[in-house]
Design goal:
single chain, alpha+beta, 5 helices, globular
């Protein structure tokens, strides 16, 4: 159902359908995380996700999306690549910072999620650099959760950006060129979700709204550029980047993180945010 603000509000039954798609995405990302190792190519990771998604009777959301048509199942962005990295022949090395974004469609409903991790194994990175990379990854993940929790506490959309920006502070660059989005029968729907505060507080956060929350942080300057493939987004200064994302539904009694295996219960409880009873079935 579209509201006057052109946002598609979902019923609990529709959210359950989105949860089914979200769990496929969660399993695909876990399979990729388990496979992550030096010597693999980014295409190898793409193959892992594609086989799981198709094997579950779903369709990759990203494949053939947009203009030019996106050519893969995953976005795999390495080191200074922020988002939308096209899988190919790039060989992963121990210590690389790898962001993996995945989407799937099941019965017409989308799920969308991303994580960032360091390729395991013996690395030539300086220990201080390794610590800085992990801090970047952990801060990005936590900022995502702070933004998610703000959906319950805040009255309007900009509460998400305020929560993300307040948590990150000046520790890392906060990418403003890209953000989150509504999600449902399309992968990208209204509203656009900013990861920083603005004067415009945005639409009210109403029951049935479903959002993909996805902050992107950089080790240095947050300015980005699009590479020659017309998809891959990289930092201008060559600093590493991290990206985390979950798809979330706001229901009458609280939140359900549709792409988290436990529905987000453990993390949301830690942050003191209300969890929907749909996420905690009896």
């Amino acid at each position: 159902m579209l509201g006057r603000d052109r946002i598609q509000y979902k019923t609990p039954d529709q959210v359950r359908l989105m949860r089914a798609a979200g769990l496929i995405v969660a399993d695909a990302l876990q399979a990729v995380r388990d496979a992550l190792a030096p010597g693999l190519t980014t295409s190898d990771l793409d193959r892992v996700a594609n086989e799981l998604i198709v094997g579950r009777g779903a369709t990759p959301s990203f494949l053939n999306y947009g203009r030019p048509p996106y050519p893969a199942t995953l976005c795999v962005s390495v080191n200074d690549e922020v988002v939308h990295g096209i899988p190919g022949s790039k060989v992963l090395r121990a210590g690389d910072v790898v962001s993996v974004d995945c989407g799937a469609i099941l019965a017409g409903w989308h799920g969308d999620s991303a994580f960032t991790a360091v390729v395991p194994g013996d690395s030539e990175r300086d220990p201080e650099q390794a610590k800085a990379d992990q801090d970047l990854i952990d801060t990005t993940e936590e900022s995502m959760w702070r933004g998610i929790a703000a959906i319950v506490a805040g009255e309007r959309l900009n509460a998400i950006g305020v929560a993300v920006e307040d948590f990150v502070g000046d520790r890392f660059g906060l990418v403003e060129d890209y953000g989150g989005h509504g999600i449902g029968t399309e992968m990208h729907q209204a509203p656009h979700v900013l990861n920083y505060r603005t004067r415009d507080r945005g639409p009210k956060l109403k029951t049935g709204i479903c959002l993909a929350i996805e902050p992107m942080l950089t080790a240095g300057n947050p300015d980005t550029r699009v590479l020659a493939d017309e998809w891959t987004v990289a930092t201008v200064d060559g600093g590493n980047a991290a990206h985390w994302e979950h798809s979330v539904a706001l229901l009458e009694d609280g939140l359900w993180v549709l792409t988290a295996p436990d529905g987000g219960v453990s993390k949301l409880t830690e942050l003191g945010a209300a969890v929907s009873s749909l996420a905690t079935p009896a």
